[in-house]
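User: Need the bound-state model for adenosine-5'-triphosphate:
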Amino acid sequence: MGSTGSPSGMDKEDINNIAQKKSTKDPDEFSQYLIDRMHQLEEHNIRLKEETRKVESEKKFAESQKVKYEREVRRLRSEIERMKAPPLLVGTVMEELDGERVLIKSSAGPNFVVNISTFISKDEIYPGAQVALNQQSLAVVNVLPAPKDPLVHGMEIIETPTVSYADIGGLDAQIEEIKEAVELPLIAPERFEAVGVEPPKGVLLIGPPGTGKTMLAKAVANETKATFIRIVGSELVQKYIGEGARLVREIFVMAREKSPSIIFIDELDAVGARRIDTGTSGDREVQRTLMQLLAEMDGFDPRGNVKLMAATNRHDILDPALLRPGRFDRIITVPIPSFEARIEILKLHSRKMKIAPGINFERMAALTPDATGADLKAITMEAGMFAVREERDVVEWSDFERAIEKVMKSTRPSLESRNSGGVMFA
Ligand SMILES: Nc1ncnc2c1ncn2[C@@H]1O[C@H](COP(=O)(O)OP(=O)(O)OP(=O)(O)O)[C@@H](O)[C@H]1O
Ligand SMILES: [Mg+2]
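Assistant: Bound-state model below.
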């Protein structure tokens, strides 16, 4: 390497060498020497070029690394700044004053007139919007997304229940009616428009306990393509004043956002009981929730794509306002199953069981007057249990007989109280 110090690639020693060779008389030897030397130098040159290329690419790599690290340092610095920034206050917009200022209510209590950051577009600011405020100037620096209650979001049924229309016995007419009143307006609203009729706004399922009202709603949730939102009436009864009403409002907002949708309120009597003048503050809170529900029902278009369904086994105590046209204007009665329906339900519930040949379902239905769907399900289950207890793998007639006796005896008192209750209210 030392010999390559001079720019020409030669040094003193080289020049001396050449002079020496030149002084020797043999010109051939000298030219041979020069040619060899030239080759040597050319090779050397190539090597040097290669080395330059390598060093240059290393330089480029180091430079790009430097840029990368500089960027990382900048990012970490800004993260440190961000972490050190004072917290923002939360406020609610009360009124827009002029383009630049708004009246806000801070979470601390008092109202302020404050400036809006120019980075916020005007349409994001509306009365009621939640905003973030600078701590010192209280200027609006950010608009927060509308608050959503996780409770409301949990009500949307995502995993549909496994019940289908085919699992329901003896309620074909009711299923038809639900399809026509709930699903058809959602899928084919033009058919109603063509005839010029308004489809019912809400469908109320009424009937004694255990006759399959909740089951019907589950089947609708399973078979419909619309978003199905299920609420139990008692969930709307909340601890704090105004909370229930707020939940109702948010449920309807969500239903509209995710439309087409069906809102199903099970056990409607928990919030829909007749309003009375006297009552505890708890009663009044339930009534406020009911009023919000009525207001929401009035507020939406019957041909729109939100449908209401509800179920109750105490429709006699419902507030009459709920049943007015434009609210729950289609009432579907889910009756105690008839003789034929009982046969069908018994067959449905025992279709997965191993039963002895020749079991007479007609006879079983004849032995179970007044039994509801839930009773009949209990009978098939009990019969199965008798077979299991006796270590048989086939269910026999005697099992059914014993099951009928056991279940009918245990439900008899409740049947009687149901009837006497009916007399009391009549
Ligand atoms: N028509 C029916 N066909 C098949 N099974 C039925 C039928 N009716 C009721 N059942 C059975 O009874 C069970 C209870 O029914 P469901 O919960 O739907 O009653 P409900 O009418 O909602 O009663 P409640 O008024 O007490 O809420 C169901 O899970 C189902 O197994
Ligand atoms: Mg129910």
